[in-house]
């Protein structure tokens, strides 16, 4: 049985739907701090749980005979900069609870998301390798880098089967993003449909690694399904689908909306984005567990516009 903590978040929502489809609704327990998404709450088993409450998590593990936990609860980069102490507490202590429950033999397999935010301003920015300088300058990035160190430690010292992916910026149509620096790349599609114009909070040439949500979910399911011996890296795997700048994604959107216009008003998130890589080398994931992306900027743009028109802006 599977428990998803943070099931109402940007990734958690789509991950819950996918896992319910693959494993059956009765084998997937969705949980979050509040009933934040009616579909997730109504379309399967849902429990309110505080990711910082060890006893609440332990109780769910026993109540449902859970074997696998996907810990998707966290504060993302922009929000974390506004709440450093709580971001550190939530991002780190939720991970320690799950790692310690696994060490105690109460969880068989853990998925924990890391991020390209573990890299910092001294990291080589183009085609950033799996192993390189990592001096993250954001609270979120520091928590993800530290989390990776603990995941690797618990695997090596206690045999905990924890698996992790350094997600790039994720783009989805069905769930609003929550406090990320890459979220402009989601909002731009909504504004292209509703307003025909968009003001980007990142400057036009800010290249960032990105991925369509379907690819991120595929990778997450995939890394959890392969045999343990295939998962050779137990900190976290670099992963990427594409890289683009606000100007480049605007050009792609103009192929569908010729009159679409974009302007730029960089805000505090520019400094965060400037500290991150522009592109990622994910060859280790491709080698160890067969990762490959299906979406690039072109087919993602077609998919986003189609889905938004069909489901949200009929
Ligand atoms: C954020 N979307 O912006 C997340 C992600 C690499 C970006 O970690 O914080």
Task: Explain the layout of strands and helices.
Elements (H helix, E strand, L loop, with lengths): L1 E4 L4 H14 L4 E5 L5 H5 L2 E4 L5 H11 L3 E4 L5 H6 L1 H20 L5 E7 L23 H20 L2 E7 L1 E3 L12 H11 L2 E4 L7 E5 H13 L11 E2 L3 E3 L1 H9 L6 E4 L4 H6 L8 H7 L7 H15 L3
Parallel strand pairs: 1-2, 1-4, 2-3, 4-5, 5-6, 6-10, 7-9, 8-12
Antiparallel strand pairs: 9-11
The structure holds (3R)-3-hydroxy-L-norvaline (VAH).
(3R)-3-hydroxy-L-norvaline (VAH) binds next to strand 7.
User: In angstroms, what separates the terminal alpha carbons?
Assistant: 37 Å
- Report the helical percentage: 40-55%
Q: Helix segment count?
A: 12
The distinct ligands, each listed once, are: (3R)-3-hydroxy-L-norvaline
Strand content: 15-25%
Number of strands: 12
Largest sheet entry? 7 strands, parallel
Describe the structure.
Helix 6 links the parallel strand 5 (109-115) and strand 6 (161-167). The strands form three sheets. Strands 3-2-1-4-5-6-10 form a seven-stranded parallel sheet, sandwiched between helices. Strands 7-9-11 form a three-stranded mixed sheet. The relative contact order is 0.14. With 314 residues, it is an alpha/beta fold. The protein has helices at residues 10-23, 38-42, 54-64, 77-82, 84-103, 139-158, 184-194, 213-225, 246-254, 269-274, 283-289, 297-311, and strands at 2-5, 28-32, 45-48, 68-71, 109-115, 161-167, 169-171, 197-200, 208-212, 237-238, 242-244, 261-264. The two termini are 37 Å apart. The model has no long low-confidence stretch (mean pLDDT 97).
């Amino acid at each position: 049985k599977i428990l998803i903590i943070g099931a109402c978040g940007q990734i958690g929502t789509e991950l819950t739907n996918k896992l319910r489809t693959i494993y059956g609704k009765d084998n997937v327990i969705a949980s979050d701090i509040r009933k934040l998404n009616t579909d997730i709450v109504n379309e399967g088993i849902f429990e309110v749980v505080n990711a910082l409450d060890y006893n609440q998590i332990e109780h769910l593990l026993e109540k449902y005979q859970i074997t696998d936990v996907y810990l998707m609860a966290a504060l993302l980069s922009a929000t974390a900069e506004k709440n450093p102490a709580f971001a550190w507490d939530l991002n780190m202590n939720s991970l320690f609870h799950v790692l310690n429950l696994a060490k105690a033999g109460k969880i068989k397999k853990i998925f924990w998301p890391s991020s390209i935010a573990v890299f910092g301003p001294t990291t080589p920015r183009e085609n950033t390798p799996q192993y390189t300088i990592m001096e993250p300058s954001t609270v979120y990035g520091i928590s993800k880098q530290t989390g990776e160190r603990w995941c690797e430690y618990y695997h090596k010292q206690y045999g905990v089967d924890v698996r992790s992916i350094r997600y790039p910026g994720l783009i989805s149509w069905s769930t609003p993003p929550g406090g990320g620096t890459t979220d402009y790349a989601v909002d731009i599609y909504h504004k292209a449909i509703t307003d025909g114009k968009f003001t980007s909070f990142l400057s036009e040439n800010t290249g960032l690694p990105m991925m369509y949500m379907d690819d991120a979910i595929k990778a997450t399911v995939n890394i959890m399904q392969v045999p343990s011996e295939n998962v050779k890296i137990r900190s976290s795997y670099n992963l990427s689908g594409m890289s683009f700048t606000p100007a480049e994604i605007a050009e792609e959107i103009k192929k569908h909306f010729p009159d679409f216009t974009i302007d730029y008003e960089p805000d505090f998130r520019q400094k965060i984005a400037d500290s991150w890589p522009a592109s990622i080398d994910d060859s280790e994931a491709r080698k160890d567990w067969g990762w490959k992306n299906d979406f690039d900027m072109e087919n993602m743009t077609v998919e986003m516009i189609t889905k938004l028109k069909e489901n949200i802006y009929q």
